[in-house]
Amino acid sequence: MAYKKEITPVKIRIKKGDTVLILSGDDKNKTGVVKEVIREKYRATVTGANMVKRHVKPTAERTGGIEEREASIHISNLMLVDANGTASRTKIEVVENNKVRISKKTGAVIADPYKSNKSETPQA
Q1: What is the dihedral of CA 4, 76, 34, 106, to 10 degrees?
Q2: CA distance to 34, 74, 90, 107, per residue, from 87 (Å)
Q3: Per-residue pLDDT tens for 68-115?
Q4: Which helix (H) or strand (E) element contains residue 19?
Q5: Domain ranges across the chain
């Protein structure tokens, strides 16, 4: 009997809220914002990209019919875009005791979508 080999976890440097460039597929060279990251499958959904049609049954809340929604894209087909709009590979460095993502092409720090939202909300 053949046993399934365990998959070694790969670090995913793309987070929800990041702007990414799509590298392959029908939506190649389009940019979008990540809606969701599915870590178990190494996939992410990007707003307005990889649109598929689903046949939906009618329910009490909505009418049935053909609905368009985003399907997930494999992480390897996405590349982070920095604040300048340049897509490049990323590296992680420690700056002022914080881990930050840095663009390898421009050297610019890529803002963390989670940390930037927390700092903007005023403390009561």
Answers
A1: 140
A2: 15, 17, 9, 11
A3: 999 999 999 999 999 889 999 999 999 899 889 999 999 999 888 887
A4: strand 19-22
A5: 19-120
Nearest alpha carbon to residue 72 among 6, 5, 14: 14
The DSSP line for 48-95 is TSSEEEEEE---SSS--EEEEEEPPEEGGGEEEB-TTS-B--EEEEEE
Q: Which fold has domain 19-120?
A: SH3 type barrels. (2.30.30)
Task: Identify the helix (H) or strand (E) that includes residue 117.
Answer: helix 113-120
Tell me, letter by letter, the H, E, C secondary structure of 26-51.
Answer: CCCCCEEEEEEEECCCCEEEECCCCE
Closest to 21 in 3D by CA, of 73, 69, 64: 73
Give the Cα separation of 8 and 5 in Å (integer).
9
Locus of tokens 């009490």: 60
Total residues found in the chain within this entry: 124
